[in-house]
Amino acid sequence: EISSKLKAVVLLLVLLLLVLLPVVLLLVMLLLEQLVVLLPMVYLLALLLGVLLQLLLPVVLLLLVSRLVV
Fold first, then answer.
1. Neighbours of 32 (CB within 10 A)
2. 41 with 69, same domain?
3. How many angstroms separate the CA atoms of 49 and 63, rounded?
4. Do 57 and 42 lie in a common domain?
5. Is residue 37 within 8 Å of 43, Cβ to Cβ?
6. pTM of the model
7. Residue 43: exposed, middle, or buried by beta-carbon count in 10 A (0-12, 13-18, 19+)?
8. Which of 20, 25, 58, 59 has its CA 20 to 30 A from that of 34?
9. 70 with 45, same domain?
10. pLDDT tens digits along 7-55
11. What is the structure's pLDDT at 13?
């Protein structure tokens, strides 16, 4: 029974994240419009984060797979 409650809570959190994400993105976009001067820096940061994620994702997947296999 505890596990089912936990699953419900996790599901709720995921749904909340999915609902809040567009709102947060919208707010960020509005803020960025106010801070057009910082736009190139933000773009560079986003680019760096994207590259980092692309580099880290295979590593994380490999670690998960190796954990599951062992």
1. 13
2. yes
3. 20
4. yes
5. no
6. 0.35
7. exposed
8. 20
9. yes
10. 889 999 998 888 888 888 888 888 877 777 777 877 888 899 889 988 9
11. 92
Q: 3-class DSSP state for residue 1?
A: coil
Number of domains, the chain:
2
Q: Tell me, yes or no, whether 30 and 57 share the same domain.
A: no
Which residue range is the domain that position 15 belongs to? 1-34
> 6: helix, coil or strand?
helix
Rounded-to-integer distance, Cα 22 and Cα 67, Å: 34
Look at residue 18 in the predicted model and tell me its pLDDT: 86
pLDDT of residue 1: 67
> Do 41 and 65 fall into the same domain?
yes
Residue found under tokens 């736009």 = 39
Residue 69 has pLDDT above 70, yes or no: yes
Cβ atoms < 10 Å from Cβ of 67: 8
